[in-house]
Amino acid sequence: MDYATRPARPEDGPALTAITLAAIRETARAAYSPEQVEAWSARVAQSARIAGAFAGDFVRVAVDQADSPVAYFVLEADGHLDMLYCHPDHGGRGLGRRLLAEAELAARALDLTRLLTEASELARPVFARAGYTLLHRRNFTIPHEGREVAIHNYAMEKRLA
User: What is this structure's pTM?
Assistant: First the structure.
């Protein structure tokens, strides 16, 4: 399948939420417990951010031949790459690598000197192959159903020369 990329549109919000939830609920199960996946996906489902609240962010989507989003990233003005998600049905086709390259081009156009992210266990190798270095493991909790669910990700950065 051939994919194109384009800027995100406000009407993409529901599709981006669906991509994120599918990636967490299906793909993340390979590295996180069912309890962690449930807490993570519940937090995302309650967030208004994905559903179109991208004021000031650079958001780009990969789309299929029908112009339906299948992957995306959110780059904040300070160089924080907040989100990089791909729908599981479209994984393993280089979309993460392609979107990371586009995020880097956008960062350079903004005269940023580095990109920062918090990569999941499964995304960490994708970022590493794109030249990101590991800063440290982040252990934290997500409030869920009256308890704190322990989970982790990795702080990573890419210096832009």
Answer: 0.91
